[in-house]
Amino acid sequence: RPRHPRARTMLPLLLLLLATAHGLDKLPYVPTLASPTLGGQTTTSTFVLEQPRCVFTIIPRDAVIWLVVAVPSGRWGEGGKHPGQGSLLIPVPLPSAVPSFNNSLGPGTPERSFQGFPTTAPAYMTLNTTVLNYPCPKTAGDINVLRVGSETACTGDETRPTCNGPLPGPGPYRVKFLALEGSEPVAETAWSSPIALQTARPPSSTSTAGPQRSAGMVALTAILPILLAALLAALVAMLVFAGGDACGGSSAFTKPEAVAVQRYNTHHVYDQPAARL
């Protein structure tokens, strides 16, 4: 019975794929966001992950660990413009990398380029390092986090497809760590839960009551010292005039008193001899 001519060429390929799949260690670790107490856990274009410490313990020491950032399924993006409807854009479904992620597409390929994410590249790979930079156990004082989206200089540089550039929208995103020995995947973690970024509030939704109160407070703060100075000057003037009146009244009162005492003494001196006579 004649065999199909492609059967002989397909069999080695299937065996190679089975061997590769068998050699890939699937680790139960799930990437998680850093503690909220750290500050800046998520922004409008970045998020912070815990480092995968004590996770890749059985991979070769020269294997490179990559962070994979992908869009989950069910997302929509903005396509071309509707004909005859101005700037209204047609929503288009974005390709999803999570359900059927292909580990054989390595970093730097067009399908894993940051500059094409998420429209033409459903995932990109960045923050490559070796297991030496994820020491185990953790030591006190070490920086145990990774900030995703912190580079701005390479955002449009197509010669750096593994750029750790700002994320293009609020998400959600899902991430995993993938270890490659050369171009061969040797270990991977599970996918994270969906990570949503913060959204910027439009100017129209911002209340203007706060700035108006602030301006009023500034004006009141400027006027209040002037009013206090005027009040203090008026109080000092009142005290000066009141003091002058008190001094004048005292001299007019004591002067007749001195005369009265003088007349009394004189009368007493002249009456005394008369009494003796």
TrEMBL record:
The keyword Membrane applies. PANTHER family: UROPLAKIN III, UROPLAKIN-3B-LIKE PROTEIN 1-RELATED. InterPro entries: Uroplakin-3. It comes from Crotophaga sulcirostris. The chain crosses the membrane at residues 217-241. This is UPK3L protein. One of its GO terms (cellular component) is membrane. Residues 1-23 form the signal peptide. Keywords: Membrane, Signal, Transmembrane, Transmembrane helix. The keyword Transmembrane applies.
